[in-house]
Amino acid sequence: MHSRAMGDWQTLDAGLAACRLCPRLVAWREEVARTKRRAYLAEDYWGRPVPGFGDPAAQALAVGLAPGAHGANRTGRMFTGDSSGDFLYAALYRAGFASRPSSMHRGDGLVLKDLFISAVCRCVPPANKPTASEIATCLPYLAQELALLARVQVIVALGRIAFDGVLHVMRDRPGFSEQTGPFRFAHGATFRLGENLPWLIASYHPSRQNTQTGRLTAAMFDAVWETVKTLG
């Protein structure tokens, strides 16, 4: 990576990790990191805002909701160490975007190819429900990442809140056109956001609630990533 670009990422991630703008989220992420889950009592929790990660030259971007309490809030890497990540990375491995089919911790050797992973909210929220104002406070970090991800051609929004968040950020980009909508969330729905702007693909979130009930199957998720490959 070009040294200036590397510096831009380091500056962004350092500012993000130090963010304390949302008092409710700061208190909750730190309480979870302090009390821990019984299975992880011997581990040091991350307990801070979680940066995006992946290939900085990626043509695809996946955007989730927020870190899991004992997943990314523990490991410090998006979708790492919980059931949502297990489902996601298995699909990414099958599609050729990930070097491993599972993710356990930041140092497990997993590498993303042509994909970057981020979220609309970087701190774990109580009951997995950030408020509208908390999301609005956090979205500028996603906007900054998108500005650095100059090659992105496709954005996958994992869940309705991520879908709405991506649209909010992209509306400020030159060329965005509401005429390419209406932008209504539905699994597998694909939208062009405007001239010289990425495609947006909607997907159900790979949460346990969706995957264990069959609302999101492996075949359905695989189809999303095959679409990414055709559009990227």
Record keyword descriptors for this entry.
single chain; 232 residues; alpha/beta; Uracil-DNA Glycosylase, subunit E; 39% helix
Summed up:
By secondary structure, the chain is of the alpha/beta class. Helix content is 39%, strand content 11%.
How would you portray this structure in words?
The chain has 232 residues and is α/β, with parallel strands linked by helices. It has a single domain, classed as Uracil-DNA Glycosylase, subunit E, CATH 3.40.470.10. It has helices at residues 3-17, 23-35, 72-75, 83-95, 132-148, 160-170, 208-211, 218-231, and strands spanning 53-54, 60-64, 115-119, 154-158, 190-192, 199-203. Strand 5 and strand 6 form a beta hairpin. Helix 1 (3-17) runs antiparallel to helix 5, helix 4 (83-95) crosses helix 8 and helix 5 crosses helix 6 (160-170). The longest helix is centred in the middle third of the chain and has 17 residues, at 132-148. It is globular and about 50 Å long. The model has no long low-confidence stretch (mean pLDDT 95).
Please describe the biggest sheet, giving its number of strands, its sense, and whether it closes into a barrel: 6 strands, mixed
What fraction strand?
5-15%
Counted beta strands? 6
Supply Rg. 17 Å
Helix and strand topology:
Layout: H1 3-17, H2 23-35, E1 53-54, E2 60-64, H3 72-75, H4 83-95, E3 115-119, H5 132-148, E4 154-158, H6 160-170, E5 190-192, E6 199-203, H7 208-211, H8 218-231
Parallel strand pairs: 2-3, 2-4, 4-6
Antiparallel strand pairs: 1-3, 5-6
